[in-house]
Amino acid sequence: MIEKLFKLKENNTDVRTEVIAGITTFMTMAYIICVQPAILSTVGMDFKSVMVATCLASAIGCFLMALLANYPIALAPAMGHNVYFTYVACPFIAGLLGADSRVLPWQAALGAVFISGVIFILCALFGFRENIIKAVPLSLRHAITVGIGLLIAMIGFEWSGLTIPDPVVYVKLGSFKNPAVLLSIFGVMSISALLVLNVRGAMLIGMLLTAFLGSMLGLLEYKGIVSPVPSIMPTFMKLNIKSVLGIGFLEIIFVFFFLDLFDTVGTLIGVGEKGGFTKNGELPRARGALLADAAATVAGAGLGTSTVSSYIESVAGISSGGRTGLTSIVTGVLMVLAVFFHPIVSMVGGGYRVSENHFLYPVVAPAMIIVGVMMMSSVRNIDWDRYSESIPSFLTIAAMPFCGFSITEGIAFGFISYVLLNIIAGRARAIHPLLYVFSVLFIIRYAYLNA
Q1: Least confident of 240-254, 375-389, 400-414
Q2: Burial of 245 (0-12, 13-18, 19+ CB in 10 A)
């Protein structure tokens, strides 16, 4: 049965190898189980429910990837997307809905995620994705990744207490007298050391070590390891689709879709190359992989979590020998089992109270800083010697962390400047028509916002 379904012999693998690969992949990406509820709970979502939704949505994505594409690629709520959901989409939606609305911003944001997932499914089914991908220059695609990485790292610095507000220079170094800051530094160094030593699951192990030390020092409360599964009802089917059907919400839906598209395609390309799955520059069964990703996003919105996407951490499992969807099945099963470990997740993802309304997250913050490091590697793929490429790329990167934690502003700055500079450079015909359309829409958006 397993052989027939996953074609193990054809892919030169066996059950034991696939199981080990699935466990390895899980270890490298399990940090999201703690990080996701910590981020989404800041907008009023129930921590326990988001944790369960994260595990179940990840499992659904892994199972779909295995059955639709037979690839050892795991899925989970994407870093960057959760930050956009929390710091951009929810405040923006709150402004559009108004104070008297009965719909909570996060419920509307889940509705936007759902719609973006449906659009992604249609694009995957009818082949529209190729045109959208081709429309955005390679340099801008990599710049978006780097910008999101810097944004995530900046939030990590804030959540660790390493960066604090300053009325003169805006931000400055935090106080080392704060024990949470020192614990965060320990977390960064622990994860970094484990990565340098090529330890599998370095991120998760480093977070657990930091949480253990935090509990020993009395900074974090130890609540046990295993417990009954928390209720998912506080977020289950709480998405509100109707509230985001107006024209004012198109920007939010577009960015959710855009990020998911390029994040998924970039991951599939990277993982495909690493695993030797690509043939003549193409990834076989790519449509099934994209459908799995899109369907997992739709399911995740219903369960109560932000955009689900393919994880580059799947490379860890592939490096351990994973070659088929059985690897993803194993990872998905472990994600389901993780719902029983809420006590340890709540300690790892919990905050340290500095004052009545100020919390630091000394276990989660180091992981976010290291994720920023990992995403920074895409900067090498930008053509820095050609100003018509490098300036738009830099504006994309800089605008995201420095313009209100807004991924939207980074994309807008990059698109508009790329079109204008390449027209000046005499390469107007080389610009994809869709990039013109996107740039005009962003210009109209700025005119509308500042009217």
Answers
A1: 400-414
A2: middle
Pair 97, 105: CB distance under 8 Å: yes
CA–CA distance from 321 to each of 22, 266, 270, 314, 316 (Å)? 10, 21, 16, 11, 9
CA distance 188 to 203: 9
Shortest CA distance to 52 belongs to which of 227, 181, 217, 183?
227
HSE at residue 183, side-chain half, CA atoms within 13 A, is 28
Contacts of 193 (CB under 8 A, 6+ apart): 206
d(CA 262, CA 407): 13
Q: Looking at residue 194, what is its pLDDT?
A: 94
Calpha distance 63→75 (Å, rounded): 9
Residue in the structure block whose two tokens are 């027939």? 4
For 221-265, write each residue's pLDDT tens digit.
Answer: 888 889 999 999 999 999 999 999 887 888 899 889 988 887 787
> Measuring CA to CA, which residue among 14, 420, 409 is closest to residue 251?
409
CA 130 to chain CA centroid, nearest Å: 22
Alpha carbon distance 42, 239 (integer Å): 17
Task: Measure the CA–CA gap between 311 and 78, rounded to whole angstroms.
Answer: 8
Q: Are 325 and 66 in contact (CB under 8 A)?
A: yes
pLDDT bucket at 451, cuts 50 / 70 / 90: low
pLDDT tens per residue, range 123-166: 888 776 666 667 788 898 889 888 888 988 898 899 899 999 88
Q: For residue 356, is pLDDT > 70?
A: no
Per DSSP, the three-state class of 230 is: coil
CA–CA–CA angle 54, 59, 62 (5° rounding): 125
Q: Which of 233, 299, 264, 305 is nearest to 86 (CA)?
A: 305
Phi, psi of 163 (to 5 degrees): -120, 130
Tokens of 303: 């369960």
Contact call for residues 259 and 38 (beta carbons, < 8 A): no
Whether the Cβ atoms of residue 72 and residue 276 lie closer than 8 Å to each other: no
In this structure, what are the phi and psi dihedrals at residue 266, rounded to the nearest 5 degrees? -60, -40
pTM of the predicted structure, to 2 decimals: 0.81
In whole angstroms, give the CA distance from residue 422 to residue 389. 8
More confident residue, 421 or 5: 421
Asked if the model's pLDDT at residue 358 lies above 80, the reply is no
Output 59 or 125, whichever has higher pLDDT: 59
3-state SS assignment for residue 180: helix
3-state SS class at 344: helix
CA-to-CA dists, residue 234 to 53, 101, 107, 238, 303, angstroms: 10, 19, 11, 8, 10
